[in-house]
Amino acid sequence: MSVNEATHPENSVWNKQVYHRLKLALSLGLRRQVFLAVCDDLNLRNQVAARLHSTLAYPVGQVLYQPTNSLEASTPAYPRLVTLRLNLTDPNPMAQISQWLINYPPPIVGKTKDAPGRPLPIPVFQIVGVEQLTRQPVATQRLFLHYLRLTEQRISTQESSRFLESSLLLWVPRPWLYAIQQSAPQFWRCRTGVFIFAGEPTPTTKTKGPERFSSSQGVDLGNLDQSILDDVLLTNSVENRDSAEEFDFPQSQPINRSHQNKEPTPLKSELLAVGLPSDETPVGDNNSNQPEIRVPILKHIGKELVELVLATMNTGDGGEVDSSPQNILEEIEELHSKKVASESLAVGYQKLGNLYRLRIEQGQSTLENLMVAIIAYQEAITYDEGSPQVPDILNDLGTLYWMLYRTPPNSEEGQSYIEQGIEFYQLALKLISPQTHPETYARVQNNLGTAYGDLARFSSPAENWQQAVAAYSEALHYRTVEMEPLKFAACQNNLGTAYWHLAQYNLPVVHLKKAIAAYNLALVHYTSNQEPLKYGMIQNNIGTAYWNLAQYEQPSENLRLAIQAYKEALIFRTPANLPAACAATLNNLGTAYWHLANQALTPKEERYQYLEQCIESYQEALNLAHSLSGMTLSFDVFATHNNLGLAHYQLVTDAYYEGDKNERSQHLEASLDNHLQALNGMSKQPETYQTTLAYVIKTIRGFHNELGIQGQNLALSKVPGSLLPEILPKL
């Protein structure tokens, strides 16, 4: 059942009107409003409540108009609407609201030395679950009505009215509406508005178990057009010192355990454009000579949407305004004025969303463009929930919210946007059948897996990576090699990534082996001839998975497999085509060589060779990294300097080392130089600084042991004078 459908066709129009009035009332942000929403159809109630939550809880416009004050701009997202289910053991809505506000008080924004700042507005509270009281004892039902009778007193008492500084929306079925009118007149007198939705009562035999805020009915939607932002490719990196770009993983450094967390590389999306008429195609970028834009009179379209569209009006190469967005707004306004069928309005809003979606596909993924697309698509669904395009639009909304999380300055609000995106993906999956629409179903599942992977950065990583694995696995049931070989390979790579992350929390051997298996399946189609860069990327991933596996079983064998994979990756990840990725893989290769050199069963001759190869790999990684000024790297350069210093030290102090005095001095000097370089970047990390300082002292002692007092003096001559007071007492 769609949000506005009921037993009789005429109820559809009525419910749409009621929904829009209720949404408008809640959007105004007025204080101390008490609304009752009356609905007997639980499916309809759940869908309307869910839409209100998805539309109003985190309105995208709120991030646009933040002041430039850095403190306020970094304030975490705080909901505008909170949905609570009535506590049946103690059915006191006011107490629930008060407790929520105690747990989540409004954050203070704009606070400076000279200004105290101000709290964000208290949200609207939406209470559902009153219908469940019918199954409770009479004493519980009376207790609920008693709490409502106290509402009038609480509103009039300043000290206890904080819970209604915003507004309250209470969902009730008709029997409870009558009970409130008769038995809680004090609450009834406080009402600001009553919104009655048409629909038949839901039989109690069909409401077993927990209710869900969405319809679970499958709908045969026929052939669907391909959606935009298709198949978001996973690019998460573990927050670790050696994270690698794209799908690459970090790996723990073998020596210096302290590190700085790195931001993951921005995710990439496969964007599939939906064809628009040529006169709707946006062109050009904003320029300083933009002509004045005519502001139309739009009475029926939300002010926020109009302002966003006008703010994103582009100019072409000739300096003329691209009027396509404004033209569509005027078309929508005309449709509103003519009071056409809601389906026509939905088409108009979807047309606007498609236009901005095309801009985003062309690389203009600005905050404003994302917001226009989101608002337009949400309006399209509001006006026509029965459209066969709804699953695709829901998928697009999920990805647009995910992109909103990736667009500065929204890093602080990231979790909220990702969770919103997941809700839209899940809604889309409820409306399509994998048997009839396998491509669409697989696409949404793949995107859902990516969203869960991002959510793991914020909370419950093990659980969210498990959800990502489930989503990718489900996608692969319907994304076959025969249908889409490259997308099949991309999804296999994403699954391998998810298994790798999951291995960091439980069953490491099992999950790492599954990760390697998934990567190898991806390589069947990401061949070195057809997809050399992706082939190299996945080989790097395989190397990292084998390196991790070596920590648990067959270390020598798995480390050799890791080295083999890294070397294969470096054939395609070169300093010329992918310098940052090449440096990361070289760093990983150095780490693998170091571990292999230190295996107990490694022969002494091979140990010397592995240490030399370790030094060579680390040095190449650092040379390349230092040549990439201004480019973001996915590994900690200072940690690599430390590791290189220790490798030089271990080589020269090995009992089987046969180099002459000059060679010993060169290795020790290289060790000291690298530790000192590492020390320069660790002044703000006390623990790491002290560890590296200890390496410096150890190396100076090595000079004395290997080269005598002359060697120690040579070492001290290389140490900055500012460090000598710290070093000399410890020698």
Task: Give a concise summary.
With 731 residues, the protein is mainly alpha-helical. Helices cover 55% and strands 5% of the residues.
Describe the structure using short key phrases.
mainly alpha; two-stranded antiparallel ribbon
**Alpha-carbon Rg, integer:** 31 Å
Overall geometry: elongated
* Low-pLDDT stretches: 1-9, 60-76, 204-293, 315-319
State the name of the first-level CATH class of the domain at 10-65 and 76-109 and 117-203.
Alpha Beta
How much of the sequence lies in strands comes to 5-15%
Q: Assign the CATH topology of the domain at 10-65 and 76-109 and 117-203.
A: Rossmann fold
User: Biggest β-sheet, characterized?
Assistant: 5 strands, parallel
Question: What's the average pLDDT?
Answer: 77
**Numbering strands along the chain, what is their spatial order in the largest sheet?**
2-5-6-1-7
Distance, first to last CA: 79 Å
> Tally of extended strands?
9
CATH architecture identity of the domain at 10-65 and 76-109 and 117-203: 3-Layer(aba) Sandwich
Helix content: 40-55%
Tally the helices: 26
| Class inferred from helices and paired strands | mainly alpha
Describe this structure in words.
Helix 9 packs antiparallel against helix 12, helix 19 runs parallel beside helix 21 and helix 22 runs antiparallel to helix 23. It is elongated and about 100 Å long. It is mainly α and 731 residues long. The chain has a domain of 177 residues: Rossmann fold (3-Layer(aba) Sandwich), CATH 3.40.50. A hairpin with an 8-residue loop joins strand 3 and strand 4. Helix content is 55%, strand content 5%. The longest helix is centred in the last third of the chain and has 33 residues. The strands form 3 sheets. Strands 2-5-6-1-7 form a 5-stranded parallel sheet, with helices on both faces. A two-stranded antiparallel ribbon has the order 3-4.
